[in-house]
């Protein structure tokens, strides 16, 4: 009787580990959209430039666009990190970061390039990380840099949305990357941009 219980417990643990291992299907997208086209349009020697770029792979940075897929068929966005405000000033005297912290604002541009309607709260899928690897979720705050991203954004195919997403981070943190994931952070693809 004890042997069967032990075997069942081991099988349950192995099953849980297998389920966990299968659940890590997320991919990080960090290669900017349209690099090949930009090289062709630059008029420079494409083969020389390609060789130089292959030795140092380019990652997305401020101004670059990444194409991300959502969970639903036909759900796709072109996401651009337009600007960064660090530190970001609160839009009014009533909104202040906690003691020892500062606001950092990231302006995102979302263009629905898919066939399905995009309906989400973009700030739920945004996260910022510092050079130590600490990650911070977005916070609700308005900043002087410009209008906030809508908390409930609906975009038909071809439509676009633009706005700031704000994060509250320790004053000493050196911000390194920002990430964006569709479907409130649950989609398989996560876009990542280098901020410094």
Automatic annotation (TrEMBL):
InterPro entries documented for this protein: DUF4352, Immunoprotect_excell_Ig-like
Region (Disordered): 30-62
Domain DUF4352: 76-187
The keyword Signal belongs to this UniProt entry's keyword annotation: yes
UniProt KW Signal keyword: yes
Biased composition (Basic and acidic residues): 41-55
Keywords: Signal
Species: Streptomyces thermoalcalitolerans
Domain of life: Bacteria
Pfam families with a match to the protein in the record: DUF4352
Cleavable signal peptide: 1-21
Name this protein carries in UniProt: DUF4352 domain-containing protein
């Amino acid at each position: 009787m004890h042997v069967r219980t032990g075997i069942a417990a081991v099988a349950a643990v192995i099953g849980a580990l297998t389920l966990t291992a299968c659940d890590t299907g997320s991919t990080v997208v960090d290669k900017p959209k349209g690099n090949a086209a930009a090289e062709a349009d630059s008029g420079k020697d494409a083969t020389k430039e390609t060789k130089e770029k292959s030795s140092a792979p380019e990652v997305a940075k401020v101004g670059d666009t990444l194409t991300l897929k959502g969970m639903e068929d036909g759900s796709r966005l072109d996401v651009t990190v337009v600007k960064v405000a660090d530190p970001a000033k609160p839009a009014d005297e009533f909104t202040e970061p906690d003691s020892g912290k500062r606001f950092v604002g990231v302006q995102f541009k979302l263009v629905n390039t898919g066939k399905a309607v995009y309906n989400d709260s973009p700030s739920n899928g945004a996260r910022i990380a510092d050079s130590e690897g600490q990650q911070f979720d977005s916070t609700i705050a308005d900043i002087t840099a410009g209008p906030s991203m809508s908390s409930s954004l609906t975009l038909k195919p071809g439509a676009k949305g633009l706005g700031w997403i704000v994060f509250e981070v320790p004053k000493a943190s050196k911000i390194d990357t920002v990430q964006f994931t569709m479907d409130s952070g649950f989609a398989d693809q996560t876009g990542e941009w280098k901020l410094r």
